[in-house]
Amino acid sequence: MNSPSMEERMDKEFEVPEHPVEDLLPSPAYLPMWVEIIDAFPQDRRTQFAHVRQLLVAWQATAAQGIVGPVLTSFSPTPEFERSMSALLSAIAGRVIELDDVSSLASALLIGMFGNLFALYAVSVIGPWAEVAFLQPADDILRGYRTRLAPVLDLCRFLVPRCRQALPQNERTTVMNMMWTVFLSMGRVRRTLTTLMGFQFFSELQGEGSSSPLEVLYGLIEQQTEGTGHEVVLLALLTPAEQMAGMRPMLEGQLAWVERLRVAGRVSLERLDLSPAQTVALRDPAAQLAYLQLETYCWHCHATSSPCHPCTGCRRARYCVDVCSKQDDDQHRTLCPVLGRVSDALLGWMDDEKYAGFQLNV
Asked: Tens digit of pLDDT for each residue in 75-127?
């Protein structure tokens, strides 16, 4: 049986599922509570949220009759609605930060609302009933995508250090559900934008510091309790370039990264086997820069200096002085072979002539 051509594999990688958003839609049961939260803001802020509130009220009315589709069918992401959604997401993130109590009921409600509103934005772009989204210029959708990431970054910068503390399981679950919803939405929107923009999207998305939200989100993912299953779902939505930009350059983090990809069926310990589209993303100068920056990071004392000397075995771990290398030897010895294969694969991706025709236009 003939293996699929590179073009066929690329098409498969960029394919948008026929029904990609059914699992993104929030339950209509939350709509009355969200309207109440919006109405609790000061009058000048409520005016900014009017377009989103109008959609929620209309959806609530039809949902009471068991009809949800007509509201979304007539939904059009106008510039006014886009600005209204951006303002509301920023306000919710700001309110959670202002409360400064992740374990409170108010914070839990706001965090859940944030994730579901972000999902509604994704629905407006990629919903099978929102054909109007495909009539929008792709650059406009990209700008909206970046605008949505700003409050995501603000909220995650607040939540990540708090979730690294000993939060009760219920609070951790609330935060991780929100992160999962946002990540799933980001992944689905990215697939749509890639379909519209091709390789330009990889270049645009990974420029201008857009890996920052992924970095803080990944920092939270690393702190999950085992058995949640979320890490496989979330990592499956990231390109290798995003994973590189977001992972902590630590021995434990590196091994967990490889292991999670292996569990997800995307990598073997003998060879990192990723699709051509993912390889193209890795060739992005932004990804190569992130990789090169690790060369000045000591994996034992975490100091940054130039040059850091690589391990002679794996060439991936780096140390600023011999003392650091010796002190880290017991821990590094068991990981060295795996890290060596990772290093070989990364360097091979950057030099492989097989993908020379798929350079990004940057």
From this structure: 556 777 778 888 898 899 889 888 888 777 888 888 888 888 887 777 766 65
Query: What DSSP string describes 252-319?
Result: HHHHHHHHHHHHTTS--SS-----HHHHHHHTSHHHHHHHHHGGGB-TTT--B-SPPEEPTTTS--EE
Angle in degrees, 0-180, between the axes of helices 138-163 and 79-99, rounded to the nearest 10: 10
Instruction: List the chain domain ranges.
Output: 15-238, 270-362
Compute the distance between CA of residue 308 and CA of residue 292 in angstroms, rounded to an integer.
Answer: 11
**E strand or H helix at 351, and its extent?**
helix 336-351
Q: pLDDT tens digits, residue range 206-242?
A: 434 434 444 444 444 444 433 333 333 334 334 444 4
Task: Indicate the pairing of strand 309-310 with strand 318-319.
Answer: antiparallel
> What pTM, to 2 d.p., does this model score?
0.52
